[in-house]
Write a structure and sequence with these properties.
Layout (H helix, E strand, L loop, with lengths): L5 H13 L1 H12 L4 H14 L14 E2 L7 H10 L7 E10 L2 E9 L3 E11 L2 E11 L23 H16 L17 E2 L7 H14 L5 E11 L2 E10 L2 E12 L2 E11 L14
Helix pairs in contact: 1-2, 1-4
Keywords: Signal
InterPro entries: Cyclase_SnoaL-like, NTF2-like_dom_sf
Organism: Arcobacter arenosus
Length: 285
C-alpha cells in the first residue's frame, strides 16, 4: 500500500495539534467504541498503510517519546515517518497485550530495514500519551532454528496474570539480577524451554551453553535495573537496563508461562546511544 507523502503526514499532525477542540471532540466519541489494543494496532499499521485516522488516538498536547532517535511530541512521530523511503514500511503485529493503562506489542517491521520490535504505549483517558520501544535487526539463521517472533501467541490462563507476573518478578531478581542463580529450575521448565533469542539454543542446556561462551569471552551481558514488568495472562514482558560489550543497553524480555514455569522466551536487545545523540530528553526508560 502506498505510504503517504511527507507533506500529508505533517499536515495531518498539524491538524491534530491545532484543531483539537472540535476534531478530537468528535473522535473521542468514536474512540470509546474501540479498545486500546485496537487503537495501538491501527496506529502501528498506519505506518505501512498511510491511514491518518489513528493519529487521533494520540493526545496532541502530550506525547512523551522514549525512542531516543525521535523528537518529542506528536510532531516528532510525524517527522520520523516522513523520513521513511517511499513504500518501504511494513508492519506485522504478532502479539498485543494490555496491562492497566499500558498496551504492549510484539511486531515484525521493515522500518529503515527489517527489525523485530516491542512497543509500549501508555493511555490517559483513552488517548496515547507516552511511548517506549526496543528494536533489533532480524537475524535469518538462528541457533535454535526458531524465528525471533514466531511461536505461541494464544492468550490463556485469564485468571493468572498477577501470579505469572510475580513468578517473572522473582525470576528477574534471582536470575537476571543474580541474587540466587541456583534457583533457575524453580522458574524455567526443565522439560520445555523454547528459545527465540537468535543466538541461544532451546532448553536450559542451550541457555547454559550461551552463558558459558559469553563468560569465556569476557562479554557477558549484565542486568542492572528492571524498570517495568507488564503482563496479561500467560505472557509477561520485562523492561530492563544494563550493559553489554561495555556499553549501555536496554533489554526487553517476553516470557510465556505454563503451569507455573517459564516455557518460552523472546527478546530484543538495543544499545542506548550516548546522551549527546538523543533527540529528546525523556530517557530510554
Amino acid at each position: 500500500m502506498k505510504l503517504i507523502t511527507t507533506k500529508k503526514f505533517l499536515a495531518s499532525f498539524l491538524v491534530a495539534s491545532v484543531f483539537s477542540g472540535c476534531v478530537f471532540a468528535q473522535q473521542s466519541k468514536e474512540n470509546e467504541m474501540i479498545t486500546n489494543k485496537q487503537k495501538v494496532v491501527e496506529l502501528l499499521n498506519s505506518i505501512e498503510n498511510g491511514n491518518t485516522k489513528p493519529v487521533g488516538y494520540i493526545n496532541p498536547n502530550k506525547y512523551i517519546q522514549h525512542n531516543l532517535a525521535v523528537k518529542d511530541g506528536i510532531s516528532g512521530f510525524g517527522e520520523l515517518l516522513s523520513q521513511l523511503p517511499k513504500n518501504s514500511a511494513k508492519v506485522d503485529v504478532k502479539r498485543v497485550f494490555e496491562d492497566g493503562d499500558f498496551v504492549f506489542t510484539h511486531t515484525k517491521y521493515n522500518f529503515f530495514g527489517p527489525k523485530i520490535g516491542f512497543d509500549i504505549f501508555r493511555f490517559e483517558e483513552g488517548k496515547i500519551v507516552e511511548h517506549w520501544d526496543n528494536l533489533q535487526e532480524v537475524v535469518e539463521v538462528t541457533a535454535s532454528g526458531r524465528g525471533q517472533i514466531d511461536g505461541e501467541s494464544n492468550i490463556t490462563d485469564l485468571d493468572k496474570t498477577q501470579e505469572n507476573k510475580k513468578l517473572v518478578k522473582n525470576f528477574v531478581q534471582d536470575i537476571l539480577l543474580g541474587k540466587n542463580p541456583n534457583k533457575i529450575t524453580e522458574y524455567i521448565s526443565t522439560e520445555k524451554y523454547l528459545q527465540h533469542n537468535p543466538y541461544v539454543k532451546d532448553g536450559l542446556d542451550g541457555l547454559k551453553e550461551a552463558i558459558d561462551y559469553l563468560i569465556s569471552q569476557n562479554d557477558m551481558f549484565i542486568y542492572k535495573k528492571v524498570h517495568k514488568i507488564l503482563g496479561e495472562c500467560n505472557f509477561v514482558l520485562t523492561v530492563s537496563e544494563g550493559s553489554w560489550h561495555g556499553k549501555a543497553h536496554s533489554f526487553y524480555d517476553l516470557f510465556r508461562v505454563e503451569n507455573g514455569k517459564i516455557v518460552e522466551h523472546w527478546d530484543t536487545i538495543e544499545e542506548i546511544p550516548s546522551k549527546e545523540k538523543w533527540l529528546n530528553n525523556n530517557g530510554k526508560f
